[in-house]
Amino acid sequence: MLTIYDIAKKAGVSASTVSKVLNGRPGVGKKTIEKVKQITEELGYYPNSIARGLATKKSKTVGVFFEDHLNSGFRHPFLQDILASFKDVIGAHGYDLIFFTNNHPDNHVETFEARARHRNVDGLFLMGIPRTDKNLDAIIASNIPCISIDLDLCGPRANYICSDNIGGAASAVEYFISKGHKKIACITDFFATKPGEDRLVGYLRAMEKHGLSLKKEWIARSDFSDQGGLLSTRKLLDSDPSLTAIFCAGDMMALGAMRAIKEKGLAVGKDISIIGFDNISLLSYVTPSLTTVSQKKEAMGEMAAKELIKLMEDPYYRADPITIETELIIRDTVCNLVENS
User: Fold this and answer.
1) CATH topology agreement for domains 4-47 and 165-295+328-340
2) Where are the domains of the chain?
3) What is the average pLDDT across 216-220?
4) What CDD domains does the annotation carry (predicted)?
5) Residue environment code for 79-101, b if the CB has 16+ CB neighbours within 10 A, otherwise e
6) What is the CA radius of gyration of the chain?
7) Which secondary structure element, helix H or strand E, spans residue 224, and what is its range?
């Protein structure tokens, strides 16, 4: 069996030098690096990642936990964009990804921490995990470097990244109000997620700021699916036909809301105005084009990777939560009641 000692003998260097080259560690000259790599390729030597991990106490892998309430898996457009940019940055630093399934038979008996340690990952990336998950305290206490998206996970080796969900939601409601809307409903989520709760807060703050009356039946809770938006909008319009606008905490909700409005024989953007949240790529196929709050998904993925690398590679790094600004994208689903009055 070919070993690094065989490489070292042929290259005329020590085994430790070969190890440094193969693991990308400093302290080796450029010519020696090129020579070792050339001989490695000639002999067809492939380092054993498990053995290397035992020697360095690093597996160069990152575990990804994703809890999917809607069973859409990695097909969800918001998730796709974040994961793509996260993978690019983490991969460029020599790390591979391990995806932990959320329907594994051991899920009910093994914690996130236990599964992460079993796979010997260097860090964790969490998405879609609700604040109420009983495993989160153990993850924070474990000191396994961890970064999360839209989950306020804080600890010595844990940090999180989120969009300005409160500000983004408030900007959507402010835009409705600037167009003369006063009877504005909100569809948020019932999963106790940070984005859902924060977007509801933004809606409430904007309504209160402008002294608008608010009926409890104007707030509907749903999941983040188009079906959830459809059912919620049906209830909203049945309970109060005088509503003129609906803010949806997610674009998929908004697409369902648009369908419900059309079912009522009403026109989206004329009879009832809609604003979503996310700016998913699917919107380019929707008519009328949806006004929405855009999240910088690629930037979130890149920042998550960079923060996790710091947490994994610098034991003294102490991170602060990162909030990324949003942008209201104005399209065709909000009518101007001021002009029509």
Assistant:
1) no
2) 4-47, 61-162+297-324, 165-295+328-340
3) 96
4) HTH_LacI, PBP1_LacI_sugar_binding-like
5) bebbbebbbebbeeeebeebebe
6) 25
7) none
Please confirm whether the linkage preceding 156 is cis (ω < 30° from 0). no
From the candidate CATH numbers 1.10.150.130, 1.10.260.40, 2.40.160.210, 2.60.120.620, the one assigned to the domain spanning 4-47: 1.10.260.40
How confident is residue 50, by pLDDT bands cut at 50, 70 and 90? Answer: very low
For domain 165-295+328-340, is the CATH number 3.90.930.12? Answer: no
* Tens digit of each residue's pLDDT (9 = 90 or more) over 61-79: 999 988 765 555 555 667 7
Kindly report which listed range (57-61, 112-116, 225-229, 330-334) carries the lowest average pLDDT score: 57-61
Q: Which amino acid is it at 103?
A: N
SS (H, E, C) 258-292: HHHHHHCCCCECCCEEEEEEECCHHHHHCCCCCEE
In this structure, what are the phi and psi dihedrals at residue 271, rounded to the nearest 5 degrees? -85, -40
Return the pLDDT at 57: 62
Q: Give yes or no for a contact between 248 and 272, defined as CB atoms under 8 angstroms apart.
A: no
The alpha carbon of residue 11 and the mean position of all alpha carbons in its chain are separated, in whole angstroms, by 46
Neighbouring C-alpha atoms within 13 Å toward the C-beta of 319:
29
**How confident is residue 186, by pLDDT bands cut at 50, 70 and 90?**
very high
Topology adopted by domain 61-162+297-324: Rossmann fold (3.40.50)
For 163, 198, 223, 337, the CA distances from 168, given in Å and listed in that order, are 8, 9, 19, 22
pLDDT tens, 223-263? 989 999 999 999 999 999 999 999 999 999 999 999 999 99
Task: Work out the end-to-end distance of the chain between its first and last CA atoms, rounded to an integer number of angstroms.
Answer: 84
Residue pointed to by tokens 């020696």: 32
Q: What is the DSSP string of 304-333?
A: HHHHHHHHHH-TT-----EEE--EEE--SS
User: Is residue 219 over pLDDT 70?
Assistant: yes
CA–CA separation, 262 and 12 (whole Å): 76
